[in-house]
Design goal:
With 368 residues, this protein is of the alpha/beta class. The chain has helices at 106-110, 118-126, 149-152, 154-164, 182-190, 205-211, 218-230, 251-261, 277-288, 293-302, 322-338, 345-348; strands spanning 54-57, 65-66, 76-78, 81-82, 111-114, 136-138, 169-173, 194-199, 235-242, 265-270.
């Protein structure tokens, strides 16, 4: 029995311009579900109104999340947004929308939640006498520079707080919007307080246009690596996710192009398809590359012992088996050839020794 059937409430093949998910499956915690039925009426392309993005406040009372996963090197993270307008169909964070009673499909990329008070929360948490400085990762679940950030500027507010506290942080994004904040990032980089990871999934703009429709185009991401590097910000290229049978053949080309643009480090992650993402990925393949569906899903199963996803630490990011081992060997061989991940470790490490809460207006001056 397959572990990735089509959901009953989603008709395959209905793509929406500028959106990644093909459908809006019911969240897995719903007690009641509906079933979509084709009534025979033929809709012309463009009949449907565009799907608009809505943003609601996320009334969080704390901001910094602690991580105990051995797969993730940083112990702390911040995600200023829930949901992501980039619409990457493969996004492992999509199932989190089910906890909100919303679909991991189109709801995830159109119904967003923003932590408008995030900079104030961060300031308060960093001033706690119990706080111990450890590097913070921004955007580990959803992108901190998704399109709504252009107006909301929450992520910029977080950088301003981190810079004022001399607090080290690392960022992962696939958006050229990060260059808007280059003034802060370059200054923090001079103090060894920041490192940026740019995710490049594919160099093929045709695939990127539907796979991750509102993320920056591949050539813009390479230009972003170049601009950050010129400003002295250390950049790691994230060849992620690698999708077997669809984008994994580009691994060497992605690493080469990123190195030529100035990246000094590299990492890769095998595509992850937890919960509803299995359904969404299959529907996307059937809609946009139907001739590859069987091969792509078959290769993913080969990397996870016959399943489409494994949650076990040590396996979920890279898989196992012959195909996964070959991808891992290709990655390490390319890094050696290109000189990636060989930079002096001290120059890549983030400096926690500078951390100090800045005085607030009206604070009494210290005697010593």
């Amino acid at each position: 029995m397959q572990d990735d059937p089509y959901p009953d409430d989603m008709l395959p093949g209905r793509a929406h311009k500028g959106r990644g998910a093909v459908g809006n499956p019911a969240p897995r915690y719903d007690r009641l579900t509906g079933q979509a039925v084709d009534d025979g009426w033929v809709r012309e392309e463009g009949d449907e109104p565009p799907l608009r993005t809505t943003v609601l406040p996320d009334t969080a009372r704390s901001l910094i999340c602690r991580n105990d996963s051995p797969d993730i090197p940083l112990e702390q993270s911040i995600n200023p947004y829930k949901g992501c307008e980039h619409g990457c169909v493969y996004c492992f964070a999509r199932p989190n929308h089910a906890y909100l009673g919303l679909s991991p499909g189109l709801d995830f990329e159109t119904r967003l939640f923003a932590k408008f008070n995030a900079p104030a929360l961060l300031d308060a948490e960093l001033r706690s006498p119990r706080y111990r400085c450890r590097p913070i990762a921004l955007g580990t679940s959803t992108d901190a520079y998704q399109p709504v950030e252009r107006e909301l500027r929450i992520t910029r507010g977080l950088w301003e707080v981190l810079s004022a506290f001399n607090h080290p942080a690392a960022l992962v994004t696939k958006s050229a919007l990060v260059l808007r904040d280059l003034d802060i990032l370059a200054d923090m980089a001079a103090r060894r307080l920041v490192q940026v990871g740019i995710s490049v999934t594919t160099l093929d703009p045709t695939i990127a246009r539907t796979l991750e429709p509102r993320a920056s185009a591949p050539h813009r991401r390479l230009a972003t690596i170049e601009a950050l590097s010129r400003a002295g910000v250390p950049v790691v290229v994230m060849a992620a996710p690698m999708i077997p049978g669809l984008t994994d053949h580009e691994l060497d080309a992605i690493l080469t192009a990123a190195r030529d643009a100035g990246a000094v480090g590299a990492a890769y992650i095998l595509v992850r398809l937890p919960h509803e993402v299995k359904e969404l990925m299959r529907s996307w393949l059937d809609t946009h590359t139907p001739s590859r569906t069987g091969r792509v899903l078959g290769l993913i199963r080969d990397c996870h012992g016959g399943k489409l996803y494994e949650a076990e630490f040590g396996r979920r990011f890279t898989g196992h088996g012959v195909y996964a081992d070959l991808l891992r060997a290709r990655f390490h061989a390319a890094c050696r050839r290109l000189g990636l991940n060989t930079r002096n470790r001290d120059s890549m490490n983030l400096d926690c020794s500078r951390f100090a809460p800045p005085p607030r207006a009206g604070d009494q001056l210290a005697l010593f």
